Amino acid sequence: MLFFGADSIPEIARSLGRGLYEIRRATQEIKNEITRSAEEVIEKEKLSDTTKEIEKVKQEIEGTISRKR
Fold first, then answer.
1. Whole domain around residue 49: which residue ranges?
2. CA 66 to CA 16: how far, in whole Å?
């Protein structure tokens, strides 16, 4: 109150409230982006594992076919 005066306290409080809101919103956006990135990595790993399994089965089938000929 000594520096700003009683009249400016509500405006200062509003500004601080807006600032805190923006910080929370930005923090949530960062969390969401990290979550999306992590989910993409997990999906890529699953796809890679699935692709390896498919290739393994394919080679087994090709080996079986080659032995039958």
1. 6-68
2. 74
